[in-house]
Amino acid sequence: MEEVIRLPRLGESAPDFEAPTTHGTIKLDDYKGSWLILFSHPADFTPVCTTEFVAFAQIYPELQKRGVELLGISVDSITSHIAWVRNIEEKLGVKIPFPIIADLNKEVSQLYGMVHPGQSKTETVRCVFIIDPNKIVRAMLYYPLTTGRNMDEILRLINALQTTDEHKLATPANWRPGDMAIVPPPLTTESAEERLKQGYECADWYLCKKKL
Q: Which of 49, 127, 202, 208 is catalytic?
């Protein structure tokens, strides 16, 4: 019988957990009130994962400016994580400033649907969960074992989510800070007519943008 993978759902509470990490025991509640990126990697001491951890460390200051914390996870042990972090600093000159969960029993990985047997029966795939200050799952990204993640897109996604929360607007394809945002569509014919007089940039009644 094929294993059923349970995934968190967008707009719902992120599954609670308590787990050992390279910075001591951590609970999801420890991050309440701040944004959190929880991301999994297949294994320590592997090439693609190493490039990703270097890249995450490099964007960490930018994430912190936005009130975002990072938390890594894989099914490797604490000792493996510590050795790998030390190796990255020694060989590549990059210090990993954020904690990494040692999920040996796959408890957290199963809660977040990080183990996909079609990719690997033992390793976590490359997942990214963006969790807001109220512990709500706001975005999920999945990558195969062979493909490293794009840090520019992760930063762009954080910027877009925070802009939506602040201004109650949506963001179009390829949106970046400074671009126009999308005004929510009208719900009545009267408001559809009225919005064309609001000074928005409108292609039609249902597609209007405004400057922030």
A: 49
